[in-house]
Amino acid sequence: MMKNSIESRSLSPALGVEVLGLDLRHSLSGEQQQALRRLFDQYYLLVFRNQDISTDDHIRVVSTFGPVSDEKSDGTRHSFVSNVRPDGLFGDVELTFHADYEFRPEPPPAISLYGYDVQQPTSPTVFASLAHAYRRLPSVLRECLVGRTSVYADDYTRKMTDAAYGKRYSLIALSQMPPDTTHPRTERPLFYPHPRTGEPLLLVSEMHSSHISGFSAEENEAMLRELFSQLLARENQYAHPWQKGDLVIWDNLALQHGRPSQEPGMKEMRRTLRRVVISDKTAAELLGPYYNRPGSFKADGAATA
Prior knowledge:
- The structure is a single chain.
- The protein is α+β, with helices and mostly antiparallel strands.
- It has 2 domains: 7-120 and 239-301, Clavaminate synthase-like (Double-stranded beta-helix), CATH 3.60.130.10; 129-231, Clavaminate synthase-like (Double-stranded beta-helix, 4-Layer Sandwich), CATH 3.60.130.10.
- It contains 6 helices and 16 strands.
- The protein has helices at residues 30-43, 55-62, 130-136, 139-145, 217-231, 283-287; strands at residues 7-10, 17-20, 45-48, 79-82, 95-98, 110-118, 125-129, 149-153, 185-189, 191-193, 200-202, 209-212, 237-240, 247-251, 255-259, 271-278.
- The radius of gyration is 19 Å and the shape is globular.
- It starts with 6 loop residues before the first strand and ends in an 18-residue tail after the last helix.
- The model is unreliable at 294-301 (pLDDT under 50).
């Protein structure tokens, strides 16, 4: 008989807990679901190890945290991050730190990946806390930035094979603004309260931060470097070492994630992670008008590690 209490252990000082003692092939009780939601809002990332779960199990567990997106807009409600599957996304490219769809008005509140087929050695997914980064800011710097906004932007004309893929696209130095259909962008407060917890988040992204309001192009680059040094400090990270059977669920609003470059021998190893996204939007709604254009990213348009 499954117990209702939830046991957990911390994964890093900045974020994340491992949830212990649950077999996710079985339905979660109401008390267990509530306990997981509380842990999620406190730590923003949950890890479940050694889980032998089906796609339906995966979707059922993740739905504890909200509606599951039809991310591929074909009714399957899951996709794969893989270097071997023909339908796999983002096979072995390096991914700078980002949150999925952060350049769009309503990014998904949560993302999950499951270790479907993982050979060793393989690259980790590294997470950084926007909440902890805000707390790390020196008070003088924080006061300087109060009231400013953060602009995220992307370039839909790039492909994953482009040398510039994953590099920031900065709008601030352009003489003419490109159209939203090819260069989507969104603007939010730089210090953004988490919509559920109210905790302040530092909204900057190594992949998608265009600029911060009120700075020149040169000042902006210097300020972003300073903020990235806070966000991407080792003590603000958790690196997840993937094993087959791992389920990782994280808050896509409170955390950034990335994938380092492949070390020797990794590209030859199978790395397939099943992805399920929490959102009340489909992929077409998340990506916007570029979704159905010839050669567009479609569901590939939001990087996951």
